[in-house]
Amino acid sequence: MEIIKNYINGELVEAANGQSFDNYNPANGEVYSQIPDSTSKDIQQAVDAASDAFPAWSKTSRKERSDLMLKVADLIDANHDRLAAAESKDNGKPIKLASRVDIPRASANFRFFATAILHESTEAHQSDQDAINMTLRSPIGVVGCISPWNLPLYLFTWKIAPAIATGNTVVAKPSEITPMTAFLLSELCIEAGLPAGVLNIVHGTGPNAGQAISEHPEIKAISFTGGTETGKRIAATAAPMFKKLSLELGGKNPNIIFADCDFEEALKTSVHSSFANQGQICLCGSRIFVERSIYDKFKDAFVARVDKLVVGDPASEGSNLGAVVSKPHMEKVLGFIDLAKKEGGTILTGGNQVHLDGDLAKGYYVAPTVIEGLSHDCQTNQQEIFGPVVTITPFDSEEDVLAMANSTEYGLSATVWTSNLHKANRVSSELKAGIVWVNCWLFRDLRTPFGGVKKSGVGREGGWDVLNFFTEKKNVCIKL
Ligand code: NAD
């Protein structure tokens, strides 16, 4: 049994109450490690350590912070295989996805922000009243980072790296469903020589450890990625305390395919954008809209490709889909498939749990599922499923598809397939989403603003946006 520990004040420690709970391997349904069941007492210890570390850390030179962060990035790369295997085992994702995406992106996050701080500048405004204004930016203090289970180390480091790069000290909590790589990161931070208290990683449940972060008066800002309901709860707790909040929440993203698209490219990428990571990426295109003149051709080709996807052992290079993250999540996804049938949907492929043999017989596997015949405003097309389930719907005009695409409470991302640049521009500007991909999906440039509108969140991560989030601006006006 592997034992996960908290990382507080530079040391690996058990929860203060000595309690822990089970961590499951989704591939076989077995408990394989223990997670500290931290409470407000552990969060208090982490806040104390972060507060003590803040004065010195916030005064280190950019070069010093950058060098330390680059060391962490190098160690992530040096431990690539071990981290990828751990991520795949903890989350159920195919090892090839963890190897090619999750772990390289974790070191890229550290590298990107370690070097960004060497190149930033601040503004100056020359006034008509014979004065000059300069904008200074300072770290906030102790900040909280809370992340979800779908891209565990990738999203955890996406928050931590800019927070410490800008001179803050951090109390961070990974998802209790996938805590392993955050624990391994704490070992790497110790090895890299990150000063004690700069980064504190506290494991535990949302209601205990997470809520204690939202409530703590000394934590001045919270960067959260997770579900919309949790975001609402965090905002309700933290907003009256005037904490800075960055909330990256759920999505129900449209994937719009016009008849004049590059058919093969749209087809290939749509299979990927529907089912990568078992459809558990907030940016997956779960509502596919296809222009009626190519609807049948696209639908048949799409279903044929989906039928070829292999659901299998996450540790096997041959698996296209692994296990979904947990038993409750599998039941939720299967419940949505039942709901879709009740709402009149036709299952074109999938629609069932997949039972693998031998050691994997108790794992949480769901067949990639394509559903047609649903109205755009039914529950299946309005609620986030966050699993390997997509709907496919024909449309007749731009106006028609925009009304359907924009009809949900969410507005995270959208994908548009067309070879007509005017149409691409028109549709992109009318889509209510924080990110639009035209003729591609999930091309990520870390300099770009990342986030959603409506119930998909508040604020933007990435590039200068997140460096602004983790700093306070102060204008100094000097009379000349
Ligand atoms: P979740 O909201 O259940 O949990 C996210 C994190 O919040 C976990 O660490 C959890 O322990 C913590 N938490 C739960 N209750 C809390 C509370 N009261 N106070 C503080 N923290 C609390 O989300 P999840 O199920 O882990 O992740 C799936 C969701 O995340 C989906 O809705 C998905 O769309 C969203 N997501 C969004 C993005 C984005 O960038 N917008 C990226 C990935 C995932």
Structure description:
By secondary structure, the protein is an alpha/beta fold. It folds into 2 domains: 2-249 and 456-479, 3-Layer(aba) Sandwich (Aldehyde Dehydrogenase, Chain A, domain 1); 253-446, Aldehyde Dehydrogenase, Chain A, domain 2. The protein is 40% helix and 24% strand. The protein is built from 15 helices and 25 strands. The protein has helices spanning 40-59, 62-78, 80-91, 95-116, 152-165, 180-192, 206-215, 228-238, 263-275, 292-307, 327-342, 379-382, 398-405, 421-430, 463-469; strands spanning 2-3, 6-8, 11-13, 20-25, 30-36, 124-127, 131-139, 142-146, 169-173, 199-201, 219-225, 244-248, 253-257, 285-291, 346-349, 353-354, 365-366, 369-372, 389-395, 410-411, 413-417, 435-438, 453-454, 457-458, 471-479. Strands 15-18-19-14-13-21-22 form a 7-stranded mixed β-sheet, sandwiched between helices. Strands 10-9-8-11-12-24 form a 6-stranded mixed β-sheet, with helices on both faces. A hairpin with a 3-residue loop joins strand 6 and strand 7. The longest helix has 22 residues, at 95-116. It is globular and about 65 Å long. The chain starts with a strand and ends with a strand. The mean pLDDT is 98. The protein binds nicotinamide-adenine-dinucleotide. Nicotinamide-adenine-dinucleotide (NAD) is lined by residues 146-150, 155, 173, 175-176, 205-207, 210-211, 213-214, 225-227, 230, 233-234, 248-251, 282, 384, 386, 412, 452, 457.
